[in-house]
Amino acid sequence: MSQPVKNVVRKAVIPAAGLGTRFLPATKAVPKEMLPIVDVPTIQHIILEAVQSGIETIVLVTARGKESILDHFDQHSDLEKKLLSEGKTELAEKLRTVSQMVEIVAVRQGAPRGLGHAVLCAKRMIGDEPFMVLLGDDLVDSEIPCSKQLIEVYNKYQKSVVALMPVPDSDVPKFGIVSGDKLDDRNIEITAMVEKPKLTEAPSNLAIVGRYLLTPKIFDYLEKTDPGKGGEIQLTDAMNMLRKEQGFIGHQFQGLRYDAGDTLGFVKANVAYALKRPELREPLLEYLKTLVK
Ligand code: G1P
Predict the structure, then answer these.
(1) Which atom of ligand 1 is nearest to the CA of 137?
(2) Which of 85, 192, 209, 267 has its CA 20 to 30 A from that of 166?
(3) ω into 216 cis (within 30 of 0)
(4) In terms of Cα–Cα distance, which of 173, 137, 97, 102 is closest to 264?
């Protein structure tokens, strides 16, 4: 391996510059990252996973019109004071927790040039250390946070890691697809990576889910990556080049993944996360039963 890799993963990139066209009209004036799963914005669930995995700094890649995401994680003293004066201590505490979750720095992606380009925009903020990338559309509900699972794999193999799950044939063209050689029950050494292949050209049905742990060498490859699928600079293409130099592990994570970027996936996530809340579970189940009768 040509580059020494460090042990500590402290930073995470969250790309949040997309237009959210799949959720129009909801996303006409509200960033899709702010759409709630129950009463918590999607991006707060994602950041919570990062924090619970030991991440200390979030590099948010944003764009015009996304200011409310930063406002959400900022302190709102007036509102806190008002809630406290009304005796709503618990709610005030909830707000304070959000603003103290983690350090967030923002960089802008001036033009929508693809996921690879979004990650490249974070290069200076990341510097020379391994880092996580978490995609806001992928919500993972698991006992051990999905990012933490990847960090444990990195600590063992000292190579970049990506989260994987098997998908049905019909979904293969929607994902980055990999194949590889088995290392143990959940890990493979990746031997091929293709962004959104046709079913006939796919090396397997193991799909990349939006959790990546990358060595900083990825930036060199992102700088060299030409536009690929959809005319965009694809992270998968740069990862495939990094794989050839440093190796790359695929990890079949434990947990349930929701595609919050898809209308049905978003509704499913809302129902599932609501059912996990003790105060909502019983009344919601009762109500759902009346609907299906
Ligand atoms: C992105 C990646 C793709 C990955 C997917 C996971 O695609 O390019 O490789 O499988 O996220 O959600 P997107 O869904 O943003 O088009």
Answers:
(1) 12
(2) 267
(3) no
(4) 137
Q: Has residue 192 got a pLDDT over 60?
A: yes
Which pLDDT does position 2 carry in this prediction?
53
Ligand 1 centroid to residue 238 C-alpha, Å: 14
pLDDT of residue 292: 87
* Whether residue 3 has pLDDT greater than 70: no
- Residue 103 CA to ligand 1 center (angstroms) comes to 26
Q: Which of 208, 225, 234, 237 to mutate to test the pocket of ligand 1 (most atoms within 8 A of CB)?
A: 208
Q: Is the pLDDT of residue 79 over 60?
A: yes
pTM of the model: 0.94
Which atom of ligand 1 lies at the shortest distance from residue 207's CA? 10
Q: For residue 63, how far is its CA from the centre of ligand 1 (angstroms)?
A: 19
Per-residue pLDDT tens over the stretch 7-26:
489 999 999 999 889 999 99
Task: Write down the pLDDT at residue 20.
Answer: 86
Atom 9 (ligand 1): residue with closest C-alpha?
176
